[in-house]
């Protein structure tokens, strides 16, 4: 005689942690993120998830912070021996573009200061300090250079990839069109870097002419 089978129990409730929420949110992506979707991926109810994130916007902010923290921002010297500031900034701008392409919807959380979280701002400041030390810039100069390149690189890349994600026009080869837009984006980023460095060089020359006793107002 067969022994009666035990009925399957409910088991231990799944633990909801910030790390698990972040991992699932990053996997889903900001563009498709919903509370219900994250809850389903975690195997919990959306009401249970609301105990850990107050709203969809809070969930998106958490995801954006995690995405940004995982971004491997290029470090000085990674382009090769004898790398100058121009080569570094070109690599940095290219990294920004690749970051935007990989994570649709992240741009507003990076270029809007009020949307950036404290850990995101800390990472930005640490990057500015690293570049200032590596290239002999003042912290204020490094901040301006990196912020200018980053802002315009994020904005340009976001525009290009937002357009690329839309339905193509009839008869347009989407992969070829994207490649063409990316080539133009790269040219624009290179021009941006040259322009930023021209301003830096011009300011340095003017500072030398004024002399150390004549600080700008």
UniProtKB/TrEMBL annotation:
TM ranges: 21-44
Source organism, top-level taxon: Bacteria
Key words, A-Z: Membrane, Transmembrane, Transmembrane helix
Gene3D superfamilies for the chain: Tetracycline Repressor, domain 2 (1.10.357.10)
InterPro entries: Homeodomain-like_sf, Tet_transcr_reg_TetR-rel_C_sf
Record-given protein name: TetR family transcriptional regulator
Source organism of the structure: Pseudomonas cremoricolorata
